[in-house]
Amino acid sequence: MKKIRDRFSKQSKLYSAYRPLYPPALYQRILQRTENRRAYWDCATGNGQVVRELAPHFEKAVATDISENQLRQAPDLPNVEYRCLRAEETPFKDNTFDLITVGQAIHWFDIEAFLRESARVARNGATMAVWGYGLLKIGDAVDEIIDHFYRKVVGPWWDGERKHIDTGYASIPFDLVTAEDLGGLYIERPMDLDALLGYLNSWSSVQNYRRAKEVNPVDVLAKSLRAHWPAGTTKTAVFPLFGTLGKIEK
Description:
This protein is an alpha/beta fold and 250 residues long. The chain has helices at residues 12-18, 24-32, 49-54, 68-72, 111-121, 141-153, 162-166, 193-201, 204-213, 217-226, and strands at 39-43, 60-65, 80-84, 97-103, 122-133, 177-181, 186-192, 234-248.
């Protein structure tokens, strides 16, 4: 099985503070497709932003992640159990869950092993929703600067799994019934420059670059961005969502 890669424990507080929140429309679509709401598994929960929104609609929920540091950032919820587990091997019983979600994480998994495990622990007819988001757009000169940073400066420091983000998960063999594309949804987030820089610092490629070169490339980038971002102003960042939503039948 693929070796575990934990790329977010070190910057778990940055991740919690600066990662964008998913739109209500995403959760509405997931719940509309989930008729039974006994048990729910949020896999690779990170700081718990997804389980926070969906758990209140279920009798019980389990949220798992490989990072203890990430789980420490998650909210205390009355019907949620947090467990430090890898996605591909769990102690859950067969036919347990009515919903399984994975937000911005499946590309880190041993994907085939995880999909087998999901089929095992899901009830027949359970809903699965898997999604991610692409490079943010702001719509002015900032886009060109960030695009160059993403592809040229820290581009070589992305792990190979990043290819799944760049292709919108098109290469992942989901075997879901009545699947629907989650493309067309997006995140809108007002940001000041400090928030943008905090978000960029949460990138795994930035952390890989820092470890290798002992310098933070975001500090250099900030100088270019300030020429196009007046102090005290905000801009709206748009993150395009992609993914799939469907039923597990067995």
